[in-house]
Structure formats: C-alpha cells, structure tokens
Design brief:
313 residues; three-stranded antiparallel β-sheet; 10 strands
C-alpha cells in the first residue's frame, strides 16, 4: 500500500513539474523590443519608461529589453538576425521592403495612423502647388512615408519626382537645409515639422487625403509561432496602455513632453493628429498595397508580395 501511494505521489509530482515546465516554456526568458519615441510615440514612452511591459511580463518571469533602433533598415536587420523579437513602431514602407527581401516578418497590428503629422514645408512664398516644385531642391528621407507623400502630391498635377532635385536627408538635416536656404522644400514630420513652422516655414500640404501615415507593429515569424501567448500578453498590455492614454491623457502630458523634448502644450497640439487604434482595417490594407506600388515604381522594392499573407488578424 505504501509503495502504491509513493508511486501515485511521484506521478503527481512529475505531472506538476511537467505542467510547470510547459507553462514556463510558453514565454521566452528575454523579450527584445525596439524603442522609438519620435515623433510622438506615446505608447512606447509609457510602455518602457513606466515599466508597464515589464510589470506584465514579470508574471511569467520574462525580462523585457528595449533597444533604441530608430531607422527602418536597422530595425529590419535586427529582426532578421534574431536580435529583436518585436518591432514596436515600424514604418509600413520598411515592413514591406523587409518582407519582400525574405525577412520572416508578420504585421500584428497598427501602431499609429497620422497623415496630418507628415508635411511638406517651404519658406518660399511662391511655392504653392506641385508645378512650383519643378527644378526645385527637395530634402527628405528616401523610401519613407514622407518620400511617398512627395511622389503622391506631385502626381496630383502630373508632375514626376524626376522633375525635382531630390536630396536624401534625415529629418534634422532636412530642417537645417530648409532654414539655411540650402534647399527650397523639406519633407518633415512631428515635432521637427512643428519647430520648422515656428522658425518661419509654411505648410504646402500634409499627408491628409494622400497617405495614411501608417506605422505598424511587427514580430519575427518564428517568435510568434513559438510564443503565441507572449504575443497575446504583449497585445493585452498594449491595449491597457492605450486605455491609459485615452482616459488619463492630462496625467501623462508632462512625462511625454520631457521625453520628446517638447513643451506640454506642443504635445497637446500634436496628440489629436494621431490615431493609435491597433485594428487593421480594409483602408489600412489598401494603403499598404498603394505603398507597395509606390516602392516598386520607385525601385525601392524589387518584387511584390501578398500583403495579406504577412498580416496577423
């Protein structure tokens, strides 16, 4: 009888240990995510600086590590090499280029839509329409939403991007070039655009009606397959962060302003321009398809992909 009880006890202990092991293996020991705070990535700021993701993953003994990788190419490279698991704010242009190059990437949701945040600016009062761009120097980041905005805007009056002198520059460089007169037009976004307007530039157009300004959240395909529960926890935590933003915005303005180096009033001005709803809509898919057409037409993406195949709904 004692032997039977001992055998049963062993089986119970073994089953308990096995279940415990199974639970632990549902989550990684370390979760690697990108941290991109600009132009006004409030979910990322709260998620990292207030430790909200870490608090959630403490429940399953997972350490959350953030890396400041701000450009699309370096984010994609880090995902492809296995250094990053989740790209928490990736431009849709970078996502499409990466996927078309064979990177095992899945789009799990929208990070933000902000067409009004993307702007084309000038200090020249005579530049008011696409035809006025012909022969002018335009500075901005190549292969981005801003580049797409330029091409789309020019096409509204059948002006080709080859009709302008396009100079590939990051946002700070493009801002400086416009203000010091080195270029006629700059492609800018967020706080950088706002500061340029304060310094005397005018807005020719925003992305409204031209581009969605779509930024997405992406995950490594093999990570998603191995740790689906980790992704569920990530999504749940992200939803909780969005609830804080929507219901307690005034409580977080100061900390957000400090992180992005703007005034609280500037943050209040910019916030309504952002839509942080994570659900991927049919309009988002249409925008992704239009973005892919733009990338291929401009030699930035070699081959088309089935966009819906990389979207996790």
């Amino acid at each position: 009888m004692k032997k039977k009880l001992f055998a049963i006890l062993l089986l119970v202990v073994f089953a308990f240990v096995s279940c415990g092991k199974e639970r632990v293996e549902e989550y990684p020991k370390v979760l690697n995510m990108t941290y991109v705070k600009a132009p006004l990535n409030i979910p990322s700021i709260l998620g990292r600086n207030d430790g909200l993701f870490q608090k959630a993953f403490d429940e399953v003994n997972t350490e959350v590590k953030f890396s400041e990788l701000t450009t699309g190419p370096e984010q994609i490279q880090a995902l492809a090499s296995g250094q990053m698991d989740i790209l928490y704010a990736l431009s849709c242009t970078s996502a499409l280029i990466g996927a078309s190059n064979g990177v095992d990437l899945k789009i799990t949701g929208v990070y933000t839509r902000a067409p009004k945040v993307f702007m084309i600016l000038t200090k020249d009062k005579n530049i008011n329409s696409p035809k006025d761009f012909i022969g002018k120097k335009v500075a901005g980041p190549k292969g981005t939403i801003l580049h797409q905005l330029l091409v789309t805007y020019l096409n509204t009056e059948n002006v080709n991007v080859d009709d302008v002198d396009f100079l590939n520059m990051g946002l700070p460089g493009a801002m400086s070039a416009l203000l010091n007169g080195s270029v006629d037009i700059a492609l800018l976004a967020g706080p950088v655009a706002l500061n340029t307007i304060k310094s005397g530039a005018k807005v020719i157009t925003t992305g409204e009606g031209l581009v969605q300004g779509l930024v997405v959240t992406a995950v490594r395909g093999d990570f998603l397959e191995k740790y689906p529960k980790a992704m569920e926890k990530f999504n749940k935590t992200n939803d909780e962060i969005l609830n804080i933003i929507n219901n307690n915005f005034e409580d977080i303005v100061d900390k957000v302003a400090k992180e992005v180096e703007n005034t609280p009033e500037e943050v209040r001005t910019m916030f309504p321009l952002y839509d942080f709803n994570t659900t991927i809509t049919e309009d988002d898919i249409k925008d992704l398809k239009a973005t892919q057409d733009f990338l291929i037409a401009n030699g930035l993406q070699e081959k088309a992909i089935d966009i819906e195949s990389i979207i996790v709904k």
